Amino acid sequence: MNLTVSYRGQLYPLSLLPDDTLAVLHARLEELTSTPPQLQKLLYKGKSNKPLNDQITLIQAGLRDGVKIQMLGTTTNELDGIKAVESDQQKRERIMRERTLKGPTKLRSTGSSSSSSDNLNYRFHKLIPLSHLPNPSSAMDLLQRLSDDQAIRHVMQKHKFAVGVLTELAPHEHPELLGLNENAGQQIKLRLRTDRYDGFRTYKEVRRVLCHELTHNVWGDHDNNFKELNSLLNREVTDYDASVKAGTNVLGYSGEAYEPSEAQSRSQVLGGGSNAVSLLNDSTEDRRRRALEAAERRLRQEEEEMENSCGTAGRSAVVE
Predict the structure, then answer these.
(1) Where is the Ubiquitin-like domain (predicted)?
(2) 318 part of a folded domain
(3) Is there a domain that residue 173 lies in?
(4) Catalytically annotated residue among 30, 182, 213, 236
(5) Annotated catalytic, 304?
(6) 168 and 143 Cβ atoms separated by less than 8 Å
(7) Residues 21, 23, 29: CA angle, nearest 5 degrees
(8) Of 178, 231, 232, 269, whose CB count within 10 A is highest?
(9) Beta strands 68-72 and 41-43, pairing class
(10) What's the average model confidence in pLDDT over 193-207?
(11) Is 23's pLDDT higher than 90?
(12) 215-250 pLDDT tens trace
């Protein structure tokens, strides 16, 4: 009996005997995809809606030669990442309950101890490139760079974001998506590669999508609450990068609006055109205002494009 199983854009041809049991099929799929049998969900034409005993034969389960099967499921590595987040959450809840029972306590600063706790909790617990795609080591390098990014770490710790698994989206699986946040941070998927798999998208583009998906840890829909937090995260990342270059410490976003430099203001009028002379005669304040308006328009356009390419809002973000 020849079967074809589709899982995350990859096709797995199988050859089994009609009197083999479902347990045999599940075991073969675990070998191929690292998805445990209890987490495998098989969809195919003619399948009964009732739960099937894994000791019945393939024929009894309604499978026939040439049938195509769609498989859903979570791999062992992804499950470990999800469990890590859940374990951290349960640990924090237990500590808070114990503190409540003990009553008020005198707080004292411990410096590195608090920082160490934040580093352990508010981070990406697992990084998983897609091994079936070309050059997974380069994908892993990009995921690692995002995980080690000090600006990203800064906003994750400040806003207490924990992510179980950071992985990638295959272009052929969801060609319309750039990012997806499942279960408010249990797993974030990012489009790392170009459509033709001949390279990777720029780091700046991928990091902006990551900030967008991190916002979905708090807000599911692209409403005003989402837009405000997403804008704040992007400003905090930009401020952190700027402070590192300037050699100053970051204590958090100051709330001040972005103001372009004199050089950036002048760059808006270079290239000539009928209005070039009048623009050059404008005041520095006018040039800065136009540069700021142009930057804001560009950011709004980028956010609109990103919202249209985000798979989290407008659909169920909870994966069963």
Answers:
(1) 1-78
(2) no
(3) yes
(4) 213
(5) no
(6) yes
(7) 115
(8) 178
(9) antiparallel
(10) 89
(11) yes
(12) 999 998 888 999 999 999 999 998 898 888 877 554
